[in-house]
Amino acid sequence: MQEQIKKIILSPEKIFLLFSLLCGLIFVFLIPPFEAPDEPAHFARTMGIVNGDFLPSKQAQSSGSYLPANYTEMLKVAAQNNSIDFLQFLPQKYSFSKAKKLAQFKDSGPKIFTDYANTARYSPAAYLPQSTGVFISKLFTKTLLYQFLCARIFNILFFVLLGFHTIKSLPFLKWAAILLLLAPMSMSLASSVSADGVLICCSALFFAKILQYSYQDDLSIDTKQTLLLLFLSLLLALTKQSVLLCLFIFLIPAKKFKTFGLTSKILIFIFSIITAAIWSKFALSINVTLNNSDYPSHISYIINHPINFLILTLNYTPFFGNILITKGIIGILGWLNVYFHNIFYSFYMILILLNILYSLNGEYIKFPYLKTLSLFGIIALNYIEICILVFCFWTPKNAFNYIAIPGRYLIPLLLPFLTFCIMLIKPKNTSYKLIIVNIIFLVLSFAYIFLELTKIFYFQ
């Protein structure tokens, strides 16, 4: 009886639901508007979608939509000056009086062409929850600030829903996954209007389902579950064109499918490639040079110096390479200008490591060497793809000695990477003592994060 009570109270998915929902909503209102990476452009893309601009237009060196001029004025007030390049500034202070000023701007009046080139190439699928929030809010209010907050709220609710089913589906690594999804970086992105939050929770659920279908003996894949995998793979392919993440589908044994095992996996991947290719063709047609990049010369460099480029990518591997990448995965908030104490990052990494070592929920699973190598290969392919895209479309022209990879881009690969880690070791079952440590740490870490954010954004 006591054991059953422990299982109910300390249920990983319920713990995740409590922390993600409560703390996610706090993030929504605690972090000031537009104080997340590229959030002004993400919200502009969301408004464009709601207004029917599923395909943004290109004008000269700009890509965007016709949006209310009030939105541009709102951004100026949010940035406290006449520039809306938030990257040039320290975190902006927020107050009740500033909120009142922002609430004066309405979704009405004359429209002007609004450039959001860095998000124009993202498909509407990447803004499914945000645009739903804005669409519903427009039925009740024309205040842009309220529409913005509704976009944030729907984004975090979508993240919580998919995250809950991720934890519930995982046959192992539940608590490590909880720490990854509840990390301040993931939570802040999910509580913003960013498309990154959508990608993180979709990729986590997709991989969790693959593990569930692969290692839950009493579960076979019928038509309904095949359609779920197809839906998630298409969503991934359309969300920042992360089509190579769909390769994980081949890790499921063909015998787990009730019918057409290998054929089903191949068709799911082919449909994902076709979907991504169709959208990518349009995205390239409206592509605008960003950050003084020059993708033809960088592609040429990769072709002519493949070994040098591969060596360069190793400098940006999280945990083993650039420490700044690791911090960016755990949490550098605001416009990547809000850091936490080094001790916090160290404790977070140590706790993730402990939850890898104690990650089982039953008997140890023997992983075939071929599957281990296949998993590593798919992870490596996805990592190299990210490096190539950032190197070609974001790194400045003729800068061949570095890749400006934000840590958040690598978050979708962490759950597969942790799975690869436990394939190399023989982990033990999760202990209740470690679960209690996890819960205490989460309570203390969120208290610390909220205190730091309050000091940074609200105190002079």
Write out key terms for the chains shown:
4% strand, two-stranded parallel sheet, globular, 460 residues, 3-stranded antiparallel β-sheet, 5 strands, mainly alpha, 20 helices
Q: What does this molecule look like?
A:
- There is one protein chain.
- The protein is mainly alpha-helical and 460 residues long.
- 61% of the residues lie in helices and 4% in strands.
- It is built from 20 helices and 5 strands.
- The strands form 2 sheets. The chain has a 3-stranded antiparallel sheet with strand order 1-2-3. Strands 4-5 form a two-stranded parallel sheet.
- A hairpin with a 2-residue loop joins β1 (57-59) and β2.
- α2 packs antiparallel against α8 (144-169), α10 crosses α16 and α11 (196-215) runs antiparallel to α12 (223-238).
- The chain is globular, with a radius of gyration of 22 Å.
- It starts with a helix and ends with a helix.
- The model has no long low-confidence stretch (mean pLDDT 88).
Task: Spell out the blueprint of helices and strands.
Elements: H1 2-9, H2 12-30, H3 39-50, E1 57-59, E2 62-68, H4 69-79, H5 96-102, E3 111-115, H6 117-120, H7 128-138, H8 144-169, H9 174-181, H10 184-190, H11 196-215, H12 223-238, H13 261-285, H14 295-304, H15 306-314, H16 323-331, H17 342-357, E4 358-360, H18 369-393, H19 414-424, E5 428-429, H20 432-458
Offer a quick outline of the entry.
This protein has 460 residues and is mostly helical. The protein has helices at 2-9, 12-30, 39-50, 69-79, 96-102, 117-120, 128-138, 144-169, 174-181, 184-190, 196-215, 223-238, 261-285, 295-304, 306-314, 323-331, 342-357, 369-393, 414-424, 432-458, and strands at 57-59, 62-68, 111-115, 358-360, 428-429. The N and C termini lie far apart (53 Å).
